[in-house]
Design a protein that fits this description.
Elements lengths: L2 H15 L3 E19 L2 E2 L7 E14 L3 E8 L6 H10 L2 E2 L20 H8 L3 H16 L5 E16 L4 E6 L2 E7 L3 E7 L5 H18 L9 E7 L1 H13 L4 H5 L7 H5 L9 E6 L20 E6 L2 E2 L6 H7 L11 E5 L6 H6 L3 E9 L10 E13 L2 E13 H4 L6 E3 L8 E8 L1
Parallel strand pairs: 10-15
Antiparallel strand pairs: 1-2, 1-3, 1-6, 3-4, 4-5, 6-7, 6-8, 8-9, 10-19, 11-12, 11-14, 12-13, 15-16, 16-17, 17-19, 18-19
Helix pairs in contact: 4-5
């Protein structure tokens, strides 16, 4: 009998004996997998030794009488100490007059999240994991990089979602990731639920080498004044997540902590240029951000958050869907895509048109900025200076600008980057 089944039985028995517990649900993950590190050009050394890990973790939600609730983390000890846990959870339950009960999904969508190749490796053969790191070390060394770090993680995760109304959903997923960092300056990574193909593996290694070498060519110049900031997709996604996606969270919208209020969504307020739309989609096969349903049981899906620059819906869990009288949405764990109706130039074409700009590969302190204002002042510690379409070398700069304001201006440019979910981005800002 599985851990999840035993836990469900104990909760059912407890509910029979203690009618104060009205309903329950849990989302349990049992994982096993391998982690291997690469440190200072040495594979699997004392600071990055291979390890095989087995873990149990999850979330439990209890609904008591008088609108009292418990939300708790659970682990493998939950069965052994069940009675003590239940006493503690009942004693510390919080009251929420606007709290929600259980959600029964009509149908949970199917999406492939378990790669047979990874399942075979986890249970039989770890050799390919070591081969990825060995290849990266070899090719990056041959490219002239001196200090190389990296890591690979490869897991099998069995998820079980159950509740007291009879819901029992089980799925298996295979999250895996690897990265390389060179000269303590720059790295690229891969995060998906499938084993990388040759193109994906080559891209990470070659881009790490190419950009790492460029960032090793320091020049004695301190950019100041008006400057074009060019964000590669990964940096652009960080800014989108913090300044835009963050302000779409239903809890912040309802509680007045967002840049936007509920009336802005009801009136479809224009917040981006008309050619821009923002979509959330977590049903793509084998993607790192994909899932079939939330912890609450809400099915994953595809939803337009912003369409033609206009607000469509906040991101809503059950509680805030109830408060706003809207349907719950998929939740953001990544999986957001900014689209433009315009034809986009390539990354190379965009760079060739830059008069005086900075390609920003790293910023420090993004989380300290006021997300509701959209404005930032950040130390960009890894930049490439571009003049008249030519990359001159690595510089550092303090950059200042209005990210959300820039998404409304025609002077801001998007560009297509092959193999990326989101485009590269160019905006006007200041450096000092």
């Amino acid at each position: 009998m599985s851990l999840a089944t035993k836990l469900a039985e104990k909760l059912n028995d407890y509910q029979i004996q203690n009618p104060k517990l009205q309903a329950w649900r849990f989302d349990l993950h049992e994982s096993k997998g391998l982690e291997v590190g690469l440190k200072n050009n040495f594979l699997g050394g004392p600071y990055s030794a291979p390890s095989y890990k087995i873990s149990v973790a999850g979330e439990l939600y209890l609904i008591w009488q008088e609108q009292r609730f418990t939300a708790a983390k659970i682990d493998a000890q939950v069965l052994e100490e069940f009675s003590q846990y239940m006493e503690l959870w009942q004693a510390t339950a919080y009251q929420d007059l606007e709290g929600v009960g259980l959600y029964q999904p009509g149908q949970i969508p199917e999406v492939p999240l378990a790669d047979p190749q990874i399942l075979q490796m986890i249970n039989r053969d770890f050799k390919p994991c070591f081969e990825v790191l060995s290849r990266g070390l070899k090719e990056l060394t041959e490219a002239g990089l001196e200090k190389i770090d990296g890591q690979i993680q490869c897991y099998q995760d069995q998820r079980v979602l159950m509740n007291s109304q009879g819901l029992e959903f089980t799925s298996i997923q295979t999250p895996m990731s690897f990265y390389f960092v060179v000269n303590n300056r720059y790295g690229q990574s891969y995060h998906e639920k499938k084993w990388p193909n040759e193109t994906e593996l080559t891209k990470v290694i070659e881009n790490t080498a190419r950009i790492g070498k460029l960032l090793s060519q320091e020049i004695l110049e301190h950019p100041t004044g008006s400057v074009q900031l060019i964000f590669p997709p990964e940096i652009f996604e960080s800014f989108l997540s913090y300044f835009l996606i963050g302000n779409l969270a239903g809890s912040l919208v309802v509680n007045g902590q967002s840049r936007y209020c509920l009336d802005d969504f009801n009136s479809h307020q224009q917040v981006l240029r008309e050619d821009l739309s923002l979509e959330l989609n977590n049903l793509l096969p084998y993607r790192a951000f994909s899932y079939q349903c939330t912890t609450e049981g809400v099915p994953g899906g595809q939803v337009a958050l912003i369409k033609d620059g206009q607000l469509m819906t906040p991101i809503l869990n059950l509680k805030y869907a109830k408060k706003t009288k809207r349907q719950p949405t998929p939740l953001s764990n990544g999986g957001f895509f900014l689209h433009s109706s315009q034809t986009l130039p390539s990354w190379e074409s965009l760079i060739s048109q830059v008069k005086y700009g900075l390609i920003v590969y790293s910023v420090l302190g993004l989380h300290t900025q006021d997300a509701t204002s959209g404005q930032f002042s950040l130390n960009a510690d890894q930049c490439l200076l571009v003049e008249n379409g030519e990359i001159r070398g690595q510089v550092t700069a303090v950059i200042n600008g209005d990210f959300l304001g820039s998404l409304q201006k025609n002077e801001s440019k998007l560009c297509f980057v092959s193999g990326e979910d989101n485009p590269g981005y160019l905006m006007m800002a200041n450096a000092g």
